């Protein structure tokens, strides 16, 4: 599938804490913007892909856009881990002729509506489903929020490799530095220092407030077509060089505590092996990356899983501005989910497209290949995008 499909359009609503609009309207705004960017008419869309968690069904989105006929539609499980997988599904569809023009979308009012970070998702989970029973082991003891789930793994990582809260803070400082120069970011013109990070309140030790991503309202959409069709469109295409999903042995939903070692993210390692193999590329070929940053510790772990550094060495890899603009691997140049918005990783894919196009507000020089990751601790996914 490598090189057989391309992203030709990206679009988004504004990112806010109170959209004042339905999730369907946010979705349609993002989809229409992406189609306009691609130079594709809505009636030409014949495929839609989103998350199983999304509240906007494909038939409602199709009706709202004015789609004539849907030939392909699919849902991908698991929150942020689904982001790059939506593109993988779309690429497979257009590469095999199941569809010609596929729109991937995600939209929610995650700040003004249901706030997953509050722990309600775990507390409200009832019934006899395996997932409900799984949470039943933890909820009585207060382990009900994503921050708390990640904190368990982060503490073990610190113990094993000597990482510190300051190491996690360097990820947050870089993200906020990039957000501060991105007018579309929620934290535009609001950088932070490492001291600011260290003074921020503890949420779930060792995680501080500034280690945690935002809760945002907004929507993002992407348009995918075959590489052949992309050449005939007015938009600037970006080739999909690799696209993969991954779920590793003994996978749980953010609480895979029963493995022999909880300091890694083996599901992300599964994704890494696939995208490197599909594309023929390696870490040395990547000029910039969008690494899923819902919580800072897992950025370090992902750098290790993808081979940018050895196990436990990410804390050294990110020293001295390495992940800032001008460093050896600038990360999350839009500000990431820590600084721009938390749209389950979809805004990160849009930033990767801008980097490959050469149109990002914080543009890295001479970008040829961009890595994108989606979700950590859950069944996950990743992309390699290549400039033409």
From TrEMBL:
Coiled coil start-end: none
Entry-linked SUPFAM superfamilies: Thiolase-like (SSF53901)
Thiolase C-terminal domain mapped to chain residues: 249-378
Chain segments annotated as transmembrane: none
InterPro entries cross-referenced by the UniProt entry: Thiolase, Thiolase-like, Thiolase_C_2, Thiolase_N
Gene3D superfamilies: 3.40.47.10
The organism's place on the tree of life at top rank: Bacteria
Residues annotated as domain Thiolase N-terminal: 22-227
Database matches in PANTHER family: ACETYL-COA C-ACETYLTRANSFERASE, NON-SPECIFIC LIPID-TRANSFER PROTEIN-LIKE 2
Name this polypeptide is given: Lipid-transfer protein
């Amino acid at each position: 599938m490598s090189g057989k499909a391309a992203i030709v359009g990206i679009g988004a609503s504004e990112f806010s804490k109170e959209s004042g609009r339905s999730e369907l309207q946010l979705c349609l705004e993002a989809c229409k913007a992406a189609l306009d960017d691609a130079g594709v008419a809505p009636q030409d869309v014949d495929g839609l892909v989103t998350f199983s968690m999304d509240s906007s069904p494909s038939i409602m989105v199709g009706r709202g856009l004015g789609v004539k006929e849907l030939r392909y539609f699919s849902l991908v499980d698991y929150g942020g881990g689904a982001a790059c997988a939506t593109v993988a599904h779309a690429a497979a569809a257009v590469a095999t002729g199941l569809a010609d023009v596929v729109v991937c979308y995600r939209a929610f009012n995650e700040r003004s509506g249901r706030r997953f970070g509050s722990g309600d998702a775990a507390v409200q989970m009832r019934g006899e489903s395996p997932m409900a029973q799984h949470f039943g082991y933890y909820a009585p003891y207060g382990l009900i929020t994503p921050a708390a789930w990640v904190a368990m793994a982060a503490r073990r990582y610190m113990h094993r490799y000597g990482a510190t809260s300051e190491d996690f803070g360097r990820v947050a400082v870089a993200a906020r530095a990039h957000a501060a120069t991105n007018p579309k970011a929620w934290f535009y013109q609001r950088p932070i220092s490492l001291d600011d990070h260290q003074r921020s309140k503890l949420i779930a030790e060792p995680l501080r407030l500034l280690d945690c991503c935002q809760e945002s309202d907004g929507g993002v959409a992407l348009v995918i077509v075959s590489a052949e069709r992309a050449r005939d469109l007015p938009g600037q295409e970006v080739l999909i060089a690799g696209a993969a999903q991954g779920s590793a042995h003994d996978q749980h939903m953010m609480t895979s505590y029963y493995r022999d070692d909880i300091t890694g993210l083996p599901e992300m390692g599964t994704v890494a092996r696939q995208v490197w193999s599909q594309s023929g590329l390696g870490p040395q070929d990547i000029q910039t990356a969008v690494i899923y940053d819902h919580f800072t510790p897992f950025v370090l772990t992902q750098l290790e899983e993808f081979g940018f550094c050895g196990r436990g060495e990410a804390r050294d890899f990110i020293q001295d501005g390495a992940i800032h603009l001008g460093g050896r691997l600038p990360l999350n140049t839009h500000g990431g989910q820590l600084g721009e918005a938390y749209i389950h990783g979809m805004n990160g894919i849009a930033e990767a497209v801008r980097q490959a196009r050469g149109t990002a507000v914080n543009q890295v020089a001479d970008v040829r290949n961009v890595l994108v990751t989606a979700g950590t601790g859950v069944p996950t996914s990743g992309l390699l995008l290549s400039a033409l």
